[in-house]
Amino acid sequence: MTIKALENFIHDRKQARGLPLTILKDTVLGIDAEYFFLQQLSPPGKKEPLLHALGGLPFSLKSCLEAFLHGLKGAGIKPVFVFKGIQLYRNERPFARPDLRQQKRAEAWEAYDKAKGETAVNIFNEIEPIPVSEVSRYAMKLLNENGADYVVAPYSSWAQLVYLLKHEKKFIDAIYGPTEVLLYDVERVITSIDFAGGGFLWISKRNLLAELGGLGSEQLLDLAVLCGLEFSSPFPLIDQPHLTGTMAVRSARDLIRNFVSGYGAVMAYAENPFVKESNYIDTYRRAYCAIKYHIVYTDKGFLEPIITEHAPNDIHEFITQRLPPELYFYLTKGIMGPEILNALTSGELIESVPLDGGESLEYRRFLSDLESMRSQSLSLLTQPLHRFYQAKRVYVVYWYERNNEHEIPHRLTPTTYETVNSWNVHSRVLDPKLMELNQKEVNLEFAVVSLDDEKFAASTVTPKTPGELLETSKEILANTYWRFLQLRSFVTPQHTLTPWGKALVTALKASRTEDLFAEPLIAALELIRFKALTAKSYTPSYTGLPIRGTDVEKAHILLIARVASLLPINHMPIGFSGPLSRNLLSFNSFVAKYTQIARTLIESTIFSLLANSDADRLAEDNAGWAKLGVSLPFTSGPNSGLGIAMKTYLDELCGKPEPTSDVERVKMKTELKKLFAHALDVVGDVERGFRLWDTVVQAVKLAAKEGTMTNTEATAFIDADAWVQQRR
């Protein structure tokens, strides 16, 4: 996020200068990833307004990134993307700032419910884009596939970019990013690139300071803090409705002129009731020091303040509690995500309102049920750390209970690591099984199906042997996946399949190899266990439910559509066009949250394996570590588009005189193509959705046979399957 007031000032004063792109030929360009993706996906014409109504990732993300990389390659520029890492210390309570996004979403749905489609789209378009953190893992995967370098900063990407620029080895030659970069010892920053026009825009710090009336570099930092940063609120006297953009910057500038510095201005108003109530003096000090003495990850693997001279010895008071260097290393490579590290350093995990509004009691119960997975993740993470973190209390705060904190227990006996550390399978055992199953690489499907062989499963019981550690990415991934599957009760501590594991194997064996159903099947079975994947509507007031047929048929349609929505719809790289369903968006909230928590658990599992020296951490090179990070599953959750397409197909078919006839089904294929005009192959996607449904039904039948599902729960799937067979 940029300093919007200063951005507006620069735009209004026409501070950006243009130069030909040829100047950057044969250079290395450091790119602020968050700035880049917001710039690419937010402007009119590029923004996808219905992303808030569908969930998932922007359809244009892949094409935007690859087009940009292609443009850089053509211009002879090598990119290095820098993602931001752990959040800085925030001196305010959770949800202290109003979230206007949900109010806008509710207004948009109200308009949509009244058949005011264009109005709804316009309101959705006014909402801020989804956080870049939600697309980061997928973006890293795309960058890796395209051979582009990236790194995750320990904290802010701005300081890390400056470190790369200022280093004696000149890791980068220029920075493409937000105005915050100018708060450091940097003279210029590139703010946009136009490949079609063959040029780029840049801002000069010298010119900006002159335009601000001759402020100094230190005073620019004062001004930025007073105007507000992404981790600190603006000065209360400036944070007024009538002071926006350029006016806010001028007010901050005048305060600095009158009182020499930002701190002088803050102290001058120390007795102001708004300043006292907000404890702004402390906020200002922390924000100022957090920028000035920001922590960067060095080329030697150390963490240091970007300015070491006069750096205070209580940096943890305004950054966060320091973590072991090894954890930061895995963060920089994308092996660990920042979410659980944020929770550990701050002691708080903030559960924000989901896209649909989160009104259902079932969703709130589901969040409570996820505590077991979060406990496992924190236990794996803290077990090899200092006792300070092993004893540290971590709380979750929900948007609907803002004043209540719910502790996540993670001091477990035995520790989660101790329950899964019998998985240390080496290549001599692994490789023959890969060849037997005709698998080229280790993935979740292999990890599950391989254990269907009882003899092989017995051979995987392998306590760690000193001097014989895991070495290859293949070994690390396989043992990570097996440990994860045991934690999720698909595998027993004796390495045999549980009834749920057998159900999963049955489903995978019934699927096509190219369908890659392991992740959606695991999610489906987990959501069945959590009582989330049912034929019941959690939010009957939400629009988008089936409306044709009997109540029984409507329940069948809803259940099948929910299963289909575990897969994404393949769409052109433009905004979605077609019918919406707030009800299926509600189910998408379950899927998205499970995907996020499952990914965190896998990351904690691989960290636990590495930090406990179950693997030789010196065996991998930099490329190997990066590949390890992008190989992990549950990169991102699907959108609800395919569920909507499935619901539309079956619901419309129910309204036909002969819903089971071949003629009507062929007509509905044509109708689907019209309704989802920008889908790449909506008929093929719906057929794939039916194939996923088939495998889920196979799993349910076996789970019922094994006694892990009640007959009532299984009957909902079996009856729906019998009904839908003549409507496919």
How do the helices and strands line up, and which of them pair or pack?
Layout: H1 4-12, E1 17-20, E2 27-32, H2 33-41, H3 51-54, H4 61-74, E3 77-83, H5 100-113, H6 117-126, H7 136-145, E4 149-152, H8 157-166, E5 174-176, E6 188-194, E7 199-204, H9 205-211, H10 217-227, H11 246-259, H12 262-268, H13 273-277, H14 280-292, E8 295-297, E9 303-305, H15 325-332, H16 338-346, E10 348-351, H17 361-369, H18 371-382, H19 387-391, E11 395-398, E12 406-407, H20 416-420, H21 427-436, H22 444-449, H23 454-459, H24 473-487, H25 499-510, H26 518-529, H27 551-564, H28 582-611, H29 622-631, H30 641-654, H31 662-675, H32 682-705, H33 711-724
Parallel strand pairs: 2-3, 2-5, 3-4, 10-11
Antiparallel strand pairs: 1-7, 6-7, 8-9, 11-12
